[in-house]
Amino acid sequence: MEQEFLELTTIIHYSDKNYEKTKFSGLSEIDFVTPFNGTKWINTYGLDYQNEFRKIILENKLDDFLIKLLMEEEHATKVIVLDNLLFVTIKVLKTEGKNLDNEQMIFIVSPHFLWSIQEKPGDYFNWIRERLEGHKGIVRKKKADYLLYLIIEAIIDNYQDTYLKHAEISASELNATNIKPTPEFTSLVEKRKQELFSFKKAAIGLKDMIVKLEKVEIKGVDVKYFSETKEQTINLIANIDFELQELESKINLIFSIQGHRLNEVMKTLTILSVIFIPLTFLAGIYGMNFENIPELKTQNGYYILLGVMVVISVLAVWYFKRKKWF
């Protein structure tokens, strides 16, 4: 397990003038204690390395409460202040596949290092690594708090990009001109609603984490960067809520169309029934088997009865048209 852990762990050591990316050959090389110039970003893929986590925490004399926190299988959104450390957890939405999935991310932050632990391989942070390596922007002049801000910003940007991409697909599939009261269309609407609920849940969790970060007071950790990311999450949540309202309107429109069609069918059937009820009544009278029905002896009685039926039908149709019932 130790070798697997080392293969999935990298370190980037950077300062204004230096940049170094390395791998480890042993756990003892993961050093947070020895004074160093600059900032260290340690990244680990995988949460199932409890023994390795324990050794690193004990050897570097970090707050041993971290051991208990890292042993927990499930984490809600947390921001815990430890001995000159921050322990931050968040459920992050994975957007690479066709179906949206969740993964746990953990950040252990001090003024001079950030240890990011991700449940699954792959992330959205390559642009940060490229900026560090190419000395672009001010990131190499800043400490670990600014690096955490960039990571959170990368997560939000990924949410926004994925949301917009899905929104474009949804807009073409669920265009107002294509609204049809069919099971297929309703299924597309419900699928999009579930996607939006996933986005909203992830964005709310991120916003809650940022709100907690803004209240943190640790020497050497500046929380001023996080107000901008909070605004981004609030805007994203507002966009999601607006689209959810649009989808609810489309569902209501589908029900209205179905109700209107049902009413049209019932109106047509009712009109036909009203026309044929008196005709059926007349046919029923003269279809009885009594011997003494005077009209049956009339030479032109059959044609007279047909004429009466036609007149009744025409009058009924005229009356319905006058009332604008059809």
The N- to C-terminal Cα distance equals 78 Å
Number of helices: 8
Percent helix range: 40-55%
- Mean pLDDT across all residues, rounded? 83
Give the SSE string.
Answer: HEEEHHEEEEHHHHH
The first-level CATH class name of the largest domain: Alpha Beta
Q: Which structural category do the helix and sheet elements fall into? A: alpha+beta
Strand content: 5-15%
- CATH architecture designation of the largest domain: 2-Layer Sandwich
Number of strands: 7
Query: Main sheet: which strands, in order across?
Result: 2-1-3-7-6-5-4
Which outline best applies? rod-shaped
The total domain count is: 2
* Contiguous runs where pLDDT drops below 50 for at least 5 residues: none
What do we call the CATH topology of the largest domain?
A: Beta Polymerase, domain 2
CATH superfamily annotation of the largest domain: CorA soluble domain-like
Largest sheet: 7 strands, mixed
Radius of gyration, taken over Cα atoms and rounded to an integer in Å: 36 Å
Can you tag this structure with a few keywords?
2 domains, seven-stranded mixed sheet, Beta Polymerase, domain 2, 8 helices, 326 residues, 7 strands, Methane Monooxygenase Hydroxylase, Chain G, domain 1
SSE blueprint and pairings:
Elements: H1 2-7, E1 9-14, E2 19-23, E3 39-45, H2 50-59, H3 65-71, E4 78-82, E5 85-94, E6 101-109, E7 113-118, H4 126-134, H5 144-173, H6 183-214, H7 226-285, H8 301-322
Parallel strand pairs: 3-7
Antiparallel strand pairs: 1-2, 1-3, 4-5, 5-6, 6-7
